[in-house]
Amino acid sequence: MSNQLATAPVRVVVAEDDVLLREGLVSLLDQSGFEVVGQAGSGPDLLSLVRATTPELVVTDIRMPPGNANEGLDAARVIRAELPDNAILCCPRMSTSTRRWSCSAAATASATY
């Protein structure tokens, strides 16, 4: 008999507009013992899903529909304001180091990065 206490898995919402990448990440999280409670493909969908499921962790792309600008980061800022105890991981998929740096600076200012 083990002395370890059983703990509930961390509840996660994953937001990524690339379905193949999102499904791969969800699969990895599931296999690692996380409970993925929802998936979103856009910033507005992410906000609705987080409000409905209140996960402990949000993993989001920074650039998502509808505008493919900073919708994921903007959603992370709203989530941080509404649920300040939730962990947020912003994952940029940028091609240039300048864009990566800009997104990192913006994410650090308002979200857990």
List keywords for this structure.
single chain; 113 residues; alpha/beta; Rossmann fold; 4-stranded parallel beta sheet; 4 helices; 44% helix; globular
Query: Which residues sit in consecutive blocks of at least 5 with pLDDT less than 50?
Result: 94-113
CATH topology: Rossmann fold
- Order of the strands making up the biggest sheet: 2-1-3-4
Specify the overall morphology: globular
How are the secondary structure elements laid out?
Blueprint lengths: L10 E5 L3 H13 L3 E6 L2 H11 L3 E5 L9 H12 L4 E5 L5 H14 L3
Parallel strand pairs: 1-2, 1-3, 3-4
Give a description of the structure.
- The chain is an alpha/beta fold.
- The chain has a single domain (11-110), classed as Response regulator (Rossmann fold), CATH 3.40.50.
- 44% of the residues lie in helices and 19% in strands.
- The chain has 4 helices and 4 strands.
- The chain has a 4-stranded parallel beta sheet, sandwiched between helices.
- The termini are far apart.
- Residues 94-113 have low confidence and may be disordered.
Task: Give a summary of the structure in a few sentences.
It is built from 4 helices and 4 strands, in the order βαβαβαβα. By secondary structure, the chain is of the alpha/beta class.
